[in-house]
TrEMBL record:
Its main location: membrane. This is ATP synthase I. The chain crosses the membrane at residues 20-39, 45-64, 85-103, 109-130. Residues 139-151 have a biased composition (Basic and acidic residues).
Length: 158
């Protein structure tokens, strides 16, 4: 028998979240965006792009804080995580859209910065996990074969 999703325990995998690395990547991307936008004659687009990257980093840090506080409870609820996520995303989105509207058209850089940060966040957390999984698969398959490539433990010659 399976447990319905709403009754299942709340479990969060540990991820390779490195805020300092994300800050450095954001700073490099901001510098590149400012340089490219300045070269194109729209310096403020690059600046607002950097603001979007920083808003994305702020969101990621708030996610980590909220996950830590909610999972520290004896009986964490999925609904509290969902409400927290929806509220946080709504606030970040409203801030981004207000900046984009007030400082239009250059303010649209904030929206693009937020979007790119999400891609950077996914890649920076998924790639180390994927590499670790592949290393585990390689170690597991290496344990099943001898150095000359033949399989171990399948002696059906008897």
């Amino acid at each position: 028998m399976t447990t319905p999703a709403q009754d299942a325990p709340l479990v969060f995998p540990s991820v390779a979240f490195r805020p300092i690395r994300l800050l450095v990547i954001s700073a490099v991307l901001t510098a590149a965006a400012v340089a490219a936008a300045g070269f194109a004659g729209h310096l403020m687009v690059g600046v607002f792009f950097g603001v979007g990257l920083l808003l994305g980093l702020l969101n990621a840090l708030l996610v980590r804080r909220s996950v830590a506080s909610i999972t520290a409870k004896e009986h964490p609820l999925k609904s509290s995580m969902a409400i927290n996520s929806a509220t946080r995303l709504a606030v970040i989105t409203v801030i981004g859209l207000v900046v984009a509207y007030i400082f239009r058209p250059a303010g649209l850089g904030v929206v693009f910065g937020l979007a790119l940060f999400q891609l950077v966040l996914v890649l920076s957390t998924a790639l180390p996990v994927w590499q670790k999984l592949r290393a585990g698969d390689a170690a597991e398959s290496a344990g099943d074969h001898t150095p000359d490539g033949t399989e171990r433990g399948n002696s059906n010659d008897a």
